[in-house]
């Protein structure tokens, strides 16, 4: 007859379960920092791609429009708009400069702009970029084709009416 000691089996089973739970907890303790590190590097890498100078220039027969946006690595931005009208009837030219500054934040492929009325406004910096959103456009690393996609910011929402639907291209 086979003699089975159920107490030993039960004790061994409990020890095995404790060992398994301990392994799971240790794995989770190591897994969370790894996941956080990977996430941080991806977000940081995306922000690094976005940082830089973006411009748009339109020249017509009697007008020059120039827009420049600088996104800094510290999360700040500076915007400059230059508008020059040439007069065909006189020697007068009409020039206008507008400036804005504030902070920006990237989430996935969207860039959000913020302006603090107390810190970012003075006589020179008068444009309020609060509630302004842009989409970051770049060629996907998975796209192995020969097509050229210029890195750009496409503005799709802003309280500054003339900013919407802008496409500013990044200087390489």
Description:
With 172 residues, the protein is α+β, with helices and mostly antiparallel strands. The chain has two domains: 1-50; 51-170, no CATH class. The chain has one helix and nine strands. The protein has an eight-stranded antiparallel β-barrel with strand order 1-2-3-4-5-7-8-9. A hairpin with a 3-residue loop joins strand 1 (52-59) and strand 2 (63-71). The chain is elongated. Residues 31-45 have low confidence and may be disordered.
Supply the key terms.
172 residues, alpha+beta, 2 domains, 9 strands, 39% strand, elongated
Q: Runs with pLDDT <50, length 5+?
A: 31-45
Q: Percentage of helical residues?
A: 25-40%
Give a count of the beta strands, DSSP E runs of length 2 or more: 9
The amount of beta strand, in percent, is 35-45%
Q: Radius of gyration, rounded?
A: 28 Å
Query: Distance between termini?
Result: 84 Å
Domain module tally = 2
For the biggest sheet, the summary is: 8 strands, antiparallel, barrel
Mean pLDDT: 80
Cα shape: elongated
Count of runs of 4 or more consecutive helical residues: 1
Order of helices and strands: HEEEEEEEEE
In the sheet with the most strands, the strands line up as: 1-2-3-4-5-7-8-9
**Helix-strand category:** alpha+beta
């Amino acid at each position: 007859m086979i003699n089975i000691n159920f107490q030993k089996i039960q004790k061994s089973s409990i020890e095995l379960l404790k060992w398994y739970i301990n392994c799971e907890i240790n794995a989770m303790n190591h897994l969370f920092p790894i996941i956080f590190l990977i996430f941080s590097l991806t977000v940081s890498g995306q922000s690094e791609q976005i940082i830089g100078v973006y411009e748009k220039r339109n020249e017509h027969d009697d007008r020059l429009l120039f827009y420049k946006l600088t996104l800094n690595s510290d999360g700040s931005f500076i915007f400059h708009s230059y508008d020059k009208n040439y007069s065909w009837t006189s020697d007068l030219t009409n020039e206008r400069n507008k400036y804005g500054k504030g902070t920006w934040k990237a989430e996935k492929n969207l860039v959000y702009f913020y302006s603090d009325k107390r810190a970012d406004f003075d006589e020179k910096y008068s444009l309020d970029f609060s509630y302004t959103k842009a989409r970051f456009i770049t060629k996907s690393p998975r796209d192995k084709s020969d097509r050229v996609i210029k890195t750009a910011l496409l503005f799709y929402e802003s309280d500054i009416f003339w900013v919407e639907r802008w496409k500013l291209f990044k200087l390489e």
